[in-house]
């Protein structure tokens, strides 16, 4: 018997099980040693699968924010208003009920640590979606993974060390502090999403490592693959120490632990012969691992072969927790607890629909209808190598009809125009963030990169230039305004004006903060996104804002030295 095996487990009669939901970002189904990938070692994740149930055909969305919406609401992402991964399109409508909402009402302590990617301004913020505690970032990707600028319940803070290690430290602390009451811990890691940063020891193991051949070998960026797999091994180490902390707290027998990814791999690499990658509605773009462990309750080593979906997690976890919930809106997800807990449980055939940016596929227990309406028999051809449309005309016709019904629902549910503004000044939330991501630039101002999520603005050179946000001030109030910026010493002196209707604040850039790009020294391969900067913080002053909707504008009234600043973020803190 090991020391860990001898740790007594706590008894908490009458309380539901703890739930730990671990979500990785851009990790493919094949990025695990248990999937057969010879280039990566994931002993802790493999053990999680071996100690519980592994789902062989579990499907998520093609990209990040839709999967988050679906697992948190149990509904197709397009029903909740999610149509993009940035600039407001990643937000779930405010009348959606999240898993954290329901668990919180049932007495659970709720916390999220990591990448939220479902809205930054309260009540879209995680603290407004059922999470008492949030530590991480709300954007779709982040530009720096070492000592990163993060937030804690809306307040900007500085992280410590490598972000995945740091988030895991926070998760372990939460487990240790909440051993007496049931908790829901949501841990959405942001790797192996780019930029490809990982601590050097992990990279050194992969720098020159041979990689297996696969169907896309000629299109593979091997440096990117090596970095991604190094990041996966870091994830595995962190998952291992989190599970060990649960064991040491005496909670392992009373904790459901889940692991999945949010979409297919973010590059062409070994993926078990599956077709496609992130962004594709083929198998390789939407098939994810799902492991569920509940020591003593779920049979170890069990596999589920039925078609399942991220939307199923919402009703499944409530069922496993013994929570009776009557949904306020119809759920698309199904309760998987019979498949998890029972041997040979009856399970009717079903369709799982995948959709993103006008691409759609449909699958059931046997077949896949792809975005071109080609039919594949997944029972004998999981890699989608042979079109069988002519062999199964009735199946083809039926699946095309079902797919068209789903596409009609998409057209009905997704508005042609997003009329939701960015909320500001909710009376129940002190901190408000307006990042460059959510702003519209006018005049000469340029975004640092075509990917908005972790970008900043530069080339602000004219009094005709401005940044604007479409906002709705939810309650009258006075706010302390701070700007995260860089400005060379020789450019100090510009006068800024922040205006919404008749509410105006003027202030001056009085202190330099020398631009310093960070990240290149930690990048293992070249990035597509912007490098991050070290940001200074300046106070613009206090502004009183009146309740109502309109355009919040930031512009320069005077630019005595040719340039205003590089702009990353503006915060408004209710006084």
UniProtKB/TrEMBL annotation:
Pfam families: Sulfatase. InterPro entries: Alkaline_phosphatase_core_sf (IPR017850), Sulfatase (IPR050738), Sulfatase_N (IPR000917). Keywords: Hydrolase. Residues 17-323 form the Sulfatase N-terminal domain. Belongs to the sulfatase family. PANTHER family: ARYLSULFATASE FAMILY MEMBER, ENDO-4-O-SULFATASE. This is Arylsulfatase. It comes from Algoriphagus oliviformis. The lineage of its organism: Bacteria, Pseudomonadati, Bacteroidota, Cytophagia, Cytophagales.
